[in-house]
Amino acid sequence: MTEGRPGRTADGAAVRTPGRRRRSELTAFLRSRRARVTPADVGMAPGLRRRTPGLRREEVAQLSGVGVTWYTWLEQGRPINASAQVLDAIARTLRLDGPERQHLYHLAEVPQGPDPQADAEGSEGVGPEIQGIIDALEPNPAVVYNERYDILATNGGYDSLFSPRAERSSCPRNALWTLFHMPECDYPLVHPERELPMMVATMRSAYGRHVGEPVWESFIQRLSAASTAFAELWEGGDVVQPGPRVKAFQHPAVGEIGMTSVSLAVNGMPGCRIVVYTPSGDESRRRVALLSELRNQGA
Description:
The protein is α+β, with helices and mostly antiparallel strands. The chain is built from twelve helices and five strands. It has helices at about 20-35, 55-65, 70-75, 85-95, 100-105, 130-135, 155-170, 175-180, 190-205, 215-225, 230-235, 280-295; strands spanning about 140-145, 150-155, 245-250, 255-265, 275-280. Helix 2 (about 55-65) packs across helix 4 (about 85-95). The chain starts with 17 loop residues before the first helix and ends with a helix.
């Protein structure tokens, strides 16, 4: 049996490694983004005999404050080092939006840096389409979280299950912060010793994409200082991905409710997810319906 050469199959065909495919995609992506930005868009005169549909490479380099040769090598997909600051400058020049900027970081194999266009607190809301979806899921509780468990939107079912107790705790709209500050008599989780570590581990699994971001670092420091329980779990370093789970909740008006939680990604909102809680049995379904009736009656 004949072995192929490095980078080749046994019959001599070239093998495209993931790194090479990524660099090829980076080349195509930068060229396409450069082609859509005109000189007029960035306040430059078009000049004569212009054959390039958008900006030239040297113009992107000049506007981004980098060397022409370096930018050319980046666009050609050569294995060069790129910093977050340089990629941010190129993203601004090419007028990349949030998802495009994230895509650039991924293709350049650079850890995602903080988005300078993001809200200072990182807790953007949702549009009417997403709100309409979670409202349509009632009476089942539903919520939109980001990766830090900031609460971006809720429906009535979620508010009935959580909000009265959360409001008494005077906490920010963040599920982790609320749970780690809530008095035991108000606790909605039947098994907090099992659920809280899972939530912290889920947040930690996302933290690798946000290391060094001021909003994330500040949140972790503040919650660690305010809650020794959170600090200990965070220092433990456990990680887990979001996924379906069966949880038990205790509500003062209807008793214990068994729920299955399912996380759904939200297009156009990187890192955000809709979490839907559905009753895990007939009795829990009856109690969710009763909770909805009480809410409609203003109880």
